[in-house]
């Protein structure tokens, strides 16, 4: 009888140990699953706050990139404007070499939005001669402003385009002095009229104190004949 009790007790203890081992294994497996799920969340999942932060950062970077691109485009267009006026000035000097005058005007002449248009013409009534317009003999094509060509007075604000003038002024006859002007998009351009003002033929400044007819500060000008 005592031997039977001992056997039962031993079997019961073995069963208990086996149960505890099985239960412990399940608990450990459950913990491992939770840990793995947490790791998966950390590496591959995002909370709502994390998504908002990420989207905000991407938006800021995109906005900075767009502004930088836009500014570079403005600088490029202004560079073309200045280069175009310098090319026109060279053509005017060639013209002057042939006719001893620049194309005369009675008012401002303006670039055209139509490519190939000869927009610098000689007003024969002003100069009383038959000198021609500034044709392809001196410049292959008269350039136009890259964005807008406005037929307004360039001494007014926000009048884009290229503008030419060669009327009598300060005792100088028409055709012996000219002004080329264009307004720049970059109001801080180092070549703007505010920093490098030219002078009218009567020797008054284009900008600032003493200017009789002033251009906007952000105008770029080229003069000839003085």
Automatic annotation (TrEMBL):
InterPro entries: Bac_GSPG_pilin, N_methyl_site, Pilin-like. One of its GO terms (cellular component) is type II protein secretion system complex. Keywords: Membrane, Methylation, Transmembrane, Transmembrane helix. The keyword Transmembrane helix applies. The chain crosses the membrane at residues 43-69. It comes from the Bacteria. Gene3D superfamilies: Glycoprotein, Type 4 Pilin. GO terms for biological process: protein secretion by the type II secretion system. This is Pilus assembly protein. It comes from Candidatus Daviesbacteria bacterium GW2011_GWB1_36_5.
